[in-house]
């Protein structure tokens, strides 16, 4: 792709602008495969309605819908064993509540982006109270909801997270006071949240002195838990180190807001964040032109998220390898995706523990660096658990297990395929599953039910079900 | 004795709200620490097990569980190298090994080791009118049990009259904790904790697993491995039945996790023959792939079918009867199998149980104690049969103890000073720590008599080797036993 760009690029630098439209497929009319692709990358897979509505429409129109439509929850409200969820008193319910939003949001992008920020600003319920966690996720969601908050920007987000009770607790910012600097949060702000340790050339983005000086600027914040249900951050001037600091080469008596602005002015911030945001949606790394374009837009538009999301979601690279999906589904996409596809709603704790076994449980990141993405999601352990989830879900689909005596193998195949939401299957997979269907015993009710179950499990829980 | 043949893992325990995450043990799910593992590192040898002197594929699969090892911090180690290291280090026999058995949820001390001094026993009855163990049947006691005083210097405490504790187990697995006591194979520290104990499951586990009283990226045995362990052999430290425990989380040293039951590992669909499901999956996995992600997916699913087939052939039984239907039995049996396989394994960690007995304690703790005692006795017998009992020490611990007095739900809440047992033929049996007086509590809690870090220190300096102070900064070393002398014979 980069080679094509370079070949087309004329020697004169200013001509590059002319080729920018090459990067976007906003005006391209979507095939069914492209609709599937967009709704997997920006959500949890397409519904039959999504496919019907968007096939033949332009990429830009669908992306605009995703970016401007406030989500509505549709389908059966969740419960845990018949009892309404209580996220404030049960961690299981806390996880299930989020999973339910992923499953039932008609516009899924908000939950995808909320989870992206959760990956980015990872805080674990193990270390903060349920109320802090709920407030924290709510904060992330308000910034992820670019439909309701069109002008939401990363600067405001990182400022808000810096004085969020959950983050003050998780990275011990509440212990950071004048004369007793605690570097925990200051370090992660630069290392994980805004800059990365090194730039693309391998040079350090900041020094240990910068960490220490930044920590001094961030001091003074504590948490008021008088009302445990509503933890509040507060600032005590006497705990703040008001002295002069030098952060990233700039001197001043910075406070939290000013110091974060200094960090965000670092030249590696925009490429760092854009690369990570791109990687949430697109498998191949961005070529230089695309990254520069994104970083430039991001800075020019005042760190706003929606303009760059629009560029990424309409980027032609989103549709690369369209005949064979090329991104591994993370558990937090696979599980709600499978449940959406099978129209199974949250009725018990099972999916929470499956997500644990797959290595990704919302609200419980392994550490502050969040979860890694990519091929590492699949190992022999997690493969079993992914299949097992689908296998268990097939038993929840009682209505679709209605026995049809005399159903032909092809009819059974078609019914199974519809019951799991018509997922992508490679030609070889189709042939293999159909061969099973043709050979499976179907003389009794039990045999026909088993055939239906296994057909579905192989379609959605097998190797092809893991990619999007 | 039929009641003990049920699967104690399935026992429902009433839990407080913030304990929901500790349910993971009861569900056999993974602990919160997790790192996605590259396929190359967990799937064994993609090109088959390399030929090595003395070890062929058959022996390898039979003895080892390397075919399915999830490796932490080992992603850069080629499997050929890891295997060679395992075989080379396995050749060094006689290395001392440590099994860390974590009782998940906070095991209650006074009902596991009951005071026998008359004044202490009266205090115990006063604190626990409903759930006290007694010679005399009381109203509201679901399972009245008697007292069997321990022998010799242990006469301050008694084991409950439960099969597998003071009593012999059911005929199928007759061992008991008392048999290990009588053989002087247990050093008991009845009230272990750290100063100003924190009653959060997570904080306490962090401290106990990390071996330091602060947030630590590494576990205490992980740090030991970094200093004294192998740089190449991930099987030197293995978590069985869970993902890699924080106890062995290292900065550099490779460690691994393996499943507890090899035969149950595979793709299953309700009603469908397992062979059919796996044959179909193998067919799907064999399809050609057009990009790296589908290739990865098909490869992993194919390896899973293959590994499941290999693991199903392993017969881990050594003729020793473990209590039936318990994941603890399966994990200890896998541990014995691994320790006896000569693959350089020095450390095994096992998480087990739901000891967070906020309510209905007798109904939930008793069956678990029964299984615990029987399984530990069976494990010792298994090690003896394999000829490695002299090389293995087992440490049984929990993240905290429980409140001295019972609560309104016939259970006990999070408290200080849980019991810690060090078990093995090379251990100097006896009462290593003083029992916490029930007549002299600290705000309703037991008074801690032993800092767990001191016991860790003795396990290192006297058993595993190395500088305990370097591994356990801030620990009160050395261990001072209530009955004097060393931890190890």
Q: Can you give a write-up of this model?
A:
The complex is a heterodimer of chains A (468) and B (489). With 468 residues, chain A is an all-alpha fold. Chain A has helices at 2-8, 32-41, 48-54, 59-68, 91-104, 109-120, 130-144, 154-162, 165-170, 184-194, 208-217, 256-264, 269-281, 288-300, 305-313, 331-341, 350-358, 380-396, 409-419, 427-439, 445-461, and strands at residues 221-224, 232-235, 245-247, 250-252. In chain A, 50% of the residues lie in helices and 3% in strands. The two termini of chain A are 21 Å apart. Residues 1-8 of chain A have low confidence and may be disordered. Chain B is of the alpha/beta class. Chain B contains 14 helices and 15 strands. Chain B has helices at residues 23-26, 39-42, 57-63, 79-90, 118-127, 177-182, 201-210, 220-228, 274-285, 292-312, 327-339, 361-386, 452-464, 468-471, and strands spanning 70-72, 97-103, 114-115, 147-149, 157-160, 186-193, 237-240, 255-258, 347-352, 392-398, 401-402, 414-415, 418-423, 430-431, 450-451. In chain B, the strands form three sheets. In chain B, strands 1, 2, 6, 7, 8, 9, 10, 13, 14 and 15 form a ten-stranded mixed sheet that branches. In chain B, strands 3-5-4 form a three-stranded antiparallel sheet. In chain B, helix 9 (274-285) runs antiparallel to helix 10 and helix 11 (327-339) runs parallel beside helix 12 (361-386). The chains are: A mainly alpha (468), B alpha/beta (489). At the A-B interface, helix 17, helix 18, helix 20 and helix 21 of A face helix 9 and helix 10 of B.
């Amino acid at each position: 792709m980069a080679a094509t760009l370079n070949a087309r690029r004329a020697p004169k630098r200013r001509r590059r602008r002319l080729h920018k439209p090459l990067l976007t497929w906003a005006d391209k009319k979507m095939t069914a495969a492209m609709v599937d692709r967009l709704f997997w990358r920006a959500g949890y897979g397409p519904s039959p309605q999504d496919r019907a509505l968007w096939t033949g429409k332009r990429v830009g129109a669908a992306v605009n819908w995703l970016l401007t439509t406030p989500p509505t929850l549709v389908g059966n409200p969740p419960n845990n064993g018949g009892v309404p969820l209580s996220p404030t008193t049960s961690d299981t319910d806390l996880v299930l509540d989020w999973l339910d939003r992923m499953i039932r949001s008609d516009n899924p992008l908000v939950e995808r982006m909320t989870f992206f920020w959760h990956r980015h600003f990872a805080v674990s319920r193990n270390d903060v109270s349920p109320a802090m966690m709920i407030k924290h996720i709510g904060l992330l969601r308000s910034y992820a909801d670019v439909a309701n908050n069109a002008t939401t920007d990363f600067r405001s987000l990182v400022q808000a997270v810096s004085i969020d009770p959950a983050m003050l607790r998780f990275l011990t910012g509440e212990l950071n006071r004048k004369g007793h600097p605690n570097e925990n949060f200051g370090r992660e702000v630069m290392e994980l949240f805004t800059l990365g340790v090194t730039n693309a050339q391998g040079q350090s983005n900041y020094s240990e002195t910068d960490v220490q000086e930044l920590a001094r600027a961030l001091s003074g914040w504590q948490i008021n838990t008088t009302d445990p249900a509503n933890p509040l951050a507060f600032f005590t001037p006497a705990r703040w180190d008001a002295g002069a600091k030098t952060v990233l080469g700039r001197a001043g008596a910075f406070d939290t807001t000013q110091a974060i602005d200094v960090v965000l002015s670092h030249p590696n911030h925009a490429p760092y964040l854009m690369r990570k945001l791109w990687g949430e949606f697109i498998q191949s790394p961005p070529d230089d032109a695309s990254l520069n374009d994104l970083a430039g837009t991001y800075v020019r538009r005042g760190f706003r998220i929606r303009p760059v999301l629009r560029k990424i979601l309409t980027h032609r690279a989103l549709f690369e390898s369209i005949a064979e999906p090329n991104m591994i589904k993370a558990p937090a996409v696979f599980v709600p995706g499978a449940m959406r596809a099978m129209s199974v709603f949250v009725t018990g704790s099972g999916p929470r523990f499956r997500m644990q076994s797959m290595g990704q449980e919302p609200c419980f990141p392994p550490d502050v660096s969040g979860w890694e993405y990519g091929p590492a999601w699949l190992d022999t352990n997690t493969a079993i658990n992914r299949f097992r989830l689908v296998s268990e879900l097939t038993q929840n689909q009682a209505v679709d297990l209605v026995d049809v005596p005399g159903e032909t193998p092809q009819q059974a195949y078609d019914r199974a395929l519809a019951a799991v939401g018509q997922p992508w299957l490679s030609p070889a997979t189709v042939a293999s599953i159909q061969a099973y269907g043709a050979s499976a015993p179907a003389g009794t009710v039990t045999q026909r039910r088993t055939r239906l179950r296994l057909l579905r499990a192989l379609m959605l829980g097998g190797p092809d079900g893991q990619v999007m | 004795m039929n009641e003990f043949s049920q699967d104690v893992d399935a026992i429902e325990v009433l839990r407080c709200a913030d304990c929901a995450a500790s349910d993971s043990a009861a569900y056999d799910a993974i602990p919160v620490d997790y790192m996605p593992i590259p396929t190359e590192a967990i799937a064994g040898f993609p090109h088959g097990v390399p030929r090595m002197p003395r070890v062929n594929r058959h022996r390898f699969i039979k003895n080892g569980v390397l075919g399915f090892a999830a490796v932490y911090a080992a992603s850069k180690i080629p499997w050929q190298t890891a295997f060679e290291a395992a075989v080379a280090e396995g050749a060094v026999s006689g290395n001392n090994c440590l099994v860390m058995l974590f009782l998940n949820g906070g095991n209650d001390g006074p009902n596991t080791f009951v005071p026998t001094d008359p004044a202490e026993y009266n205090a115990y009855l006063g604190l626990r009118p409903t759930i006290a163990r007694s010679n005399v049947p009381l109203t509201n006691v679901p399972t009245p049990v008697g007292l069997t005083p321990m022998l010799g210097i242990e006469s301050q405490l008694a084991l409950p009259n439960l099969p597998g504790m003071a009593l012999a187990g059911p005929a199928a697995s007759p061992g008991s904790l008392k048999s290990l006591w009588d053989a002087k194979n247990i050093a008991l520290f009845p009230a272990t904790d750290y100063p100003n104990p924190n009653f959060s499951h997570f904080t306490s586990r962090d401290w106990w697993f990390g071996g330091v009283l602060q947030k630590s990226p590494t576990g205490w045995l992980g740090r030991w491995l970094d200093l004294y362990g192998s740089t190449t052999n991930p099987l030197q430290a293995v978590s069985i039945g869970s993902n890699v425990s924080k106890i062995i989380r290292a900065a550099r040293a490779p460690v691994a996790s393996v499943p507890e039951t090899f035969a149950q590992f595979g793709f299953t669909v309700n009603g469908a023959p397992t062979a059919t499901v796996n044959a179909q999956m193998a067919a799907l996995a064999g399809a050609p792939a057009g990009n790296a992600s589908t290739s990865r997916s098909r490869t992993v699913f194919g390896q899973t079918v293959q590994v499941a087939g290999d693991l199903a052939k392993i017969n881990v039984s050594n003729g020793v009867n473990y209590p039936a239907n318990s994941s603890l039995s399966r994990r200890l049996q896998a541990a014995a199998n691994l320790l006896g396989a000569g693959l350089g394994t020095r450390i095994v960690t096992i998480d087990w149980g739901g000891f967070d007995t906020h309510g209905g304690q007798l109904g939930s703790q008793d069956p678990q104690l029964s299984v615990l005692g029987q399984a530990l006795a069976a494990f010792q017998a298994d090690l003896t049969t394999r000829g490695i009992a002299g090389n293995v020490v087992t440490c049984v611990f929990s993240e905290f103890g429980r409140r001295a007095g019972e609560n309104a739900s016939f259970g006990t809440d999070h408290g200080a000073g849980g019991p810690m047992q060090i078990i093995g033929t090379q251990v100097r049996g006896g009462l290593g720590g003083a029992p916490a007086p029930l007549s002299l509590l600290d705000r309703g809690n037991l008074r801690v008599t032993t800092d767990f870090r001191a016991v860790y220190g003795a396990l290192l300096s006297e058993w595993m080797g190395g500088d305990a102070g370097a591994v356990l900064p801030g620990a009160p070393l050395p261990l001072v036993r209530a009955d004097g002398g060393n931890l190890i014979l």
